[in-house]
Amino acid sequence: MKVLIAGSAGQLGRALQATAPANVTVIAPPEVDFDICDPEAVARVVATAAPTLVINAAAYTAVDKAESETAAAQRVNVNAVGVLASAARNAGAGFVHVSTDFIFDGTAHLPYPPDALPNPLGVYGRTKLEGEEAARDLHGNPLIVRTAWVYAAKGANFVATMLRLMRERSELGVVADQIGTPTHVPTLARTIWTLAQGGHTGTFHATDAGVASWYDFAVAIHEEALALGLLTTPVTVKPIRTSDYPTPARRPAYSVLDKSATWALTGIPNHWRVELRACLQELARG
């Protein structure tokens, strides 16, 4: 299998390269050579690579900035997806697109199954939903994998932000009334490879196991980082309400995804706290 990865320099792009199965040849051109917003560049790269599968690991993920940078979010999360999907279809290749829990409004009280009715609250969620629709319309038979609360040892993410703030401050307030599931990027990458190699198409959900609030996640980061020596001084982590921390974009209060169909094919991954420890151990090793 020859696989072309868009967004190869991002958290997921790097993890896909690191976890690629032995029988996969990965083609991961840098962004300067593979501008997914440029139809001619995409057509040229796809024609040269002649992949059997194209994975879109690129996205505009600045949730709050998307409220004011709507055109940029639309360009990357919708238009570019259509360009990639069309190029993959024209090359006779499969197409994998990664989406998000933010397509849901968070009013549910049970995990969202893949066929749940979407209702995004902001520009980021809306553009990611429209990106899913573009993938289906312009490829015809894509694999769409929705995930949530993604982090890795490298890159800009919640874990990196918390570690920085915990080194700078003696007290932090973290939202406790938004519930979801943290996802260590290697889990997502391995799930994508398993589904893709199995020839699966349609919509699947993928996160680590378990449930947490952002506050729970932050407390776990604090405890694990202290144990590993990544933090030398304890700080106070206080639970706050969403209303205490206003942001430009509204966020779903409950965005736990139902992974039962995915896990039936891939097996149940580690609990999110186990994966968090693994991530922080990687950081501690340098």
Automatic annotation (TrEMBL):
Protein's recorded name: dTDP-4-dehydrorhamnose reductase
Cofactor stoichiometry and binding remark: Binds 1 Mg(2+) ion per monomer.
Protein task: Catalyzes the reduction of dTDP-6-deoxy-L-lyxo-4-hexulose to yield dTDP-L-rhamnose.
Domain of life: Bacteria
Ranges in a coiled coil: none
Metal-binding is among the record's keywords: no
InterPro entries per UniProt: dTDP_dehydrorham_reduct, NAD(P)-bd_dom_sf, RmlD-like-bd
Pathway the protein takes part in: Carbohydrate biosynthesis; dTDP-L-rhamnose biosynthesis
GO molecular function term, any single one: dTDP-4-dehydrorhamnose reductase activity
Signal peptide: none
Family the entry assigns: Belongs to the dTDP-4-dehydrorhamnose reductase family.
Gene symbol of the encoding locus: rfbD
Species, as recorded: Glacieibacterium arshaanense
Obligatory cofactor(s): Mg(2+)
Domain RmlD-like substrate binding: 1-283
GO BP: dTDP-rhamnose biosynthetic process
Catalytic reaction annotation: dTDP-beta-L-rhamnose + NADP(+) = dTDP-4-dehydro-beta-L-rhamnose + NADPH + H(+)
